[in-house]
Design goal:
500 residues, pentose shunt, eight-stranded mixed sheet, 6PGDH_C, 53% helix, two-stranded antiparallel ribbon
Length: 500
C-alpha cells in the first residue's frame, strides 16, 4: 500500500469521493460474523478491505456499526467491488459451502483478469476445491481453498489458516494471511496443491469431533460413576488443564461446568442432550472408509452425535431397557478420577494418530507433499483443538519425517504405556456401570489391534474364500492369491479380483 493510499484511508468512510478513488488490498464476500471479524482483523493489520454481501443492506449496516471508524470500504455490487481492488485482485469468499461458492465464482469470473485470485475460506468439501482449482486454471485464474479455524474470536484476533490450491497465488496472499493469523504460533503456512488445505481442515474438524466426544465421556464417568457435582468437575478440568491435557477445549469445559444461569442454577443440566453437526466430521469418516484408513474414533464421535439426536426415542427406550443392576462405584474416588484423566489422554493420542494416518494416506492418493510437523503447528494456536499436545506431535515428526504412526514415536508409545492400566480400568469400570463410551472403547480397541502382530482376519479370509471364492494368501507366500475347494463340491475357479 503506497503513501497516497494510506493518506486517503484517514478520511471518513462516508466520503464518496474517497470511496470512488480508493484501491482496496483485498475484498471479502459474506458478512456473517466470521466474515465481519476477518474484515476487522485485516483492517487492524493495515490492509484496506472492500466488503460485500449479497444482501447489500448488510454492507451498509456493517459500515455504520461494527466497521465504523475503520478503513473498511463497501461495494454496491460485485462489479463495483472488483473495480476497487488492486491487481492482482484478491477476493475471499466466506459464504455457505456448496452451491453458493460456485454461484459467486460464476459471477466473478467475467469480471476478473488473468492472474486474479479467488479464495474460498468456508468449510468446503475438498473435492469441490480440487474441481474449482482445475476449472479456474483453465480460465487462467488462481484459486485457493483455505481452512479457517478458531471460531468467532479466532477470526477477529487470530485464526489458524490452512491454505491450499494454486501455489502461484501464495506470494500474493502470504503477507495478509500471516499477519492476521494467531500471534505467537506459526499457525498459517502453505499446505499443498488443489484440495489439500480443505482436506487438512476437514481432518482438523474430525479430530475436534473426537476431542469433544472424549471430554464428554470423561464428564459422563465423573458425573454418573463418581457422582461429582458441577463445581467439583469444573475444578477437576481446571486441574487437568495444568497437565498434558492443557488445551482450549479442556479450558472451556471447566468454564461451562461452573457457569450458572440467571436463576443461580448451573446452566449445563438444562441444555437438551441432542448434538448438532455441520458435516465435516462425517466427511472425515467417509474419507477414512474411502481410503481404507481405520479412523475409528472420529467415526464413533460422529455416530455418538447421531445417537444423541434420537432424544425422544432414547427417552422411550429408557423406560423399558435396563442396564447393570446395583452396580455402584466403591473404589477410591481420587484414584479413579486419575484413571479417567489418563484414559482421556491415551484416547486423545489414538485420535490424533488416526488423523495423521488419514493425512498420510490422502497425500499418497493425491500426490500431495504434506509437512505433518507444520500442520501440527498450524493447529497449535488459533484453532479449536489448540493445545500444548500438538507441540509434541511436531517434535515427533522432527525426529522422524517419515514416521508412519505417532504410536511408533517413543514419546507417544511411552505415554500410552504409562496410561494403559488406568485406561483399561476406566473403560472396564464404565462398562460395568453401563456408561456409553464409544470413543474411549474404540481407541483402546484400535490400540490393541495395532499392537497385535496376528489378528483373526485369517479366519475372515477363509470365510470369504469358502462362500465366494475370493481367495486368500499364505503367510509363506504373500502376494500370491490362493483358492481352496473347501467342501469338495465347489469349483477351482476363484474370483476375478483379489482384495485383501
Amino acid at each position: 500500500m503506497n503513501a497516497d493510499d494510506l493518506s486517503q484511508t484517514r478520511h471518513p468512510i462516508i466520503n464518496t469521493t474517497v470511496l470512488s478513488t480508493h484501491r482496496a488490498d483485498i475484498a471479502l464476500i459474506g458478512l456473517a460474523v466470521m466474515g465481519q471479524n476477518i474484515v476487522l482483523n485485516m483492517n487492524d493489520h493495515g490492509y484496506v478491505v472492500c466488503a460485500f454481501n449479497r444482501t447489500v443492506s448488510k454492507v451498509h449496516d456493517f459500515l455504520q456499526n461494527e466497521a465504523k471508524g475503520t478503513k473498511v470500504i463497501g461495494a454496491e455490487s460485485l462489479k463495483d467491488m472488483v473495480s476497487k481492488l488492486k491487481k492482482p485482485r484478491r477476493i475471499i469468499l466466506l459464504v455457505k459451502a456448496g452451491q453458493a461458492v460456485d454461484d459467486f465464482i460464476d459471477k466473478l469470473v467475467p469480471l476478473l483478469e488473468v492472474g486474479d485470485i479467488i479464495i474460498d475460506g468456508g468449510n468446503s468439501e475438498y473435492r469441490d476445491t480440487t474441481r474449482r482449482c482445475r476449472s479456474l486454471q483453465e480460465k487462467k485464474l488462481l484459486f485457493v481453498g483455505s481452512g479457517v479455524s478458531g471460531g468467532e474470536e479466532g477470526a477477529r484476533y487470530g485464526p489458524s489458516l490452512m491454505p491450499g490450491g494454486h501455489i502461484e497465488a501464495w506470494p500474493h496472499i502470504k503477507d495478509i494471511f500471516q499477519s492476521i493469523r494467531c500471534q505467537g504460533e506459526p499457525c498459517c503456512d502453505w499446505v499443498g496443491d488443489e484440495g489439500a488445505g480443505h482436506f487438512v481442515k476437514m481432518v482438523h474438524n474430525g479430530i475436534e469431533y473426537g476431542d469433544m466426544q472424549l471430554i464428554c465421556e470423561a464428564y459422563h464417568l465423573m458425573k454418573d460413576v463418581l457422582n461429582m457435582d458441577h463445581d467439583e468437575m469444573a475444578e477437576a478440568f481446571n486441574n487437568w488443564n495444568k497437565t498434558e491435557l492443557d488445551s482450549f477445549l479442556i479450558e472451556i469445559t471447566a468454564n461451562i461446568l461452573k457457569f450458572r444461569d440467571s436463576d443461580g442454577a448451573h446452566l449445563l443440566p438444562k441444555i437438551r442432550d441432542s448434538a448438532g453437526q455441520k458435516g465435516t466430521g462425517k466427511w472425515t469418516a467417509i474419507s477414512a472408509l474411502e481410503y481404507g484408513t481405520p479412523v475409528t474414533l472420529i467415526g464413533e464421535a460422529v455416530f455418538a452425535r447421531c445417537l444423541s439426536s434420537l432424544k425422544d426415542e432414547r427417552v422411550e427406550a429408557s423406560r423399558s431397557l435396563s442396564g447393570p443392576q446395583g452396580a455402584k462405584f466403591s473404589g477410591n474416588k481420587a484414584s479413579f478420577l486419575e484413571d479417567i484423566r489418563k484414559a482421556l489422554y491415551a484416547s486423545k493420542i489414538i485420535s490424533y494418530a488416526q488423523g495423521f494416518m488419514l493425512l498420510r494416506q490422502a497425500a499418497k492418493e493425491f500426490g500431495w507433499v504434506l509437512n505433518y510437523g507444520a500442520i501440527a503447528l498450524m493447529w497449535r494456536g488459533g484453532c479449536i483443538i489448540r493445545s500444548v499436545f500438538l507441540g509434541k506431535i511436531k517434535e515427533a515428526f522432527d525426529r522422524d519425517g517419515e514416521l508412519q504412526n505417532l504410536l511408533l514415536d517413543k514419546f507417544f508409545s511411552d505415554a500410552v504405556q504409562d496410561c494403559q492400566a488406568s485406561w483399561r480400568r476406566a473403560v472396564s469400570s464404565g462398562v460395568q456401570q453401563g456408561i456409553p463410551m464409544p470413543c474411549f472403547t474404540t481407541a483402546l480397541s484400535f490400540y490393541d489391534g495395532y499392537r497385535h502382530d496376528t489378528l483373526p482376519a485369517n479366519l475372515l479370509q477363509a470365510q470369504r474364500d469358502y462362500f465366494g471364492a475370493h481367495t486368500y494368501e499364505l503367510l509363506s507366500k504373500p502376494g500370491q492369491p490362493i483358492h481352496t475347494n473347501w467342501t469338495g463340491h465347489g469349483g477351482n475357479v476363484s474370483s476375478s479380483s483379489y482384495n485383501a
